[in-house]
Design brief:
Layout: H1 3-23, E1 26-29, H2 37-50, E2 52-57, E3 63-68, H3 70-79, E4 82-85
Antiparallel strand pairs: 1-4, 2-3
Helix pairs in contact: 2-3
Length: 87
């Protein structure tokens, strides 16, 4: 592998890592202040599961994908007391 191609692969990875670090959000549950990150992830997974559907695409082979209605999942999280807070 040439040195130039190593840098070409490293730059997008570093940019992605930087963007992810900047975009991390914190959440707080107003109904249950003692809830932490583990409960947030559990609630998020449940809300996304409740507001998703499987779409099948027929072709040479069958492809299935999961479509999540993010607006409804966000409403579900709000109804469970979760709010985004500024860092």
């Amino acid at each position: 592998m040439r040195l130039g191609s190593t840098f070409a692969l490293a730059i997008p990875a570093l940019v992605s890592a930087g963007l992810l670090a900047c975009s991390s959000e914190q959440h707080r549950n107003t109904t249950n202040p003692n809830y932490g990150e583990a409960q947030y992830k559990t609630d998020l997974a449940e809300c996304r599961r409740q507001n998703s559907r499987i779409e099948s695409i027929q072709g040479y082979d069958v492809q299935n994908r999961i479509i999540v209605d993010e607006a409804k999942a966000d409403a579900c999280m709000t109804s469970r007391g979760w709010q985004t807070v500024a860092r």
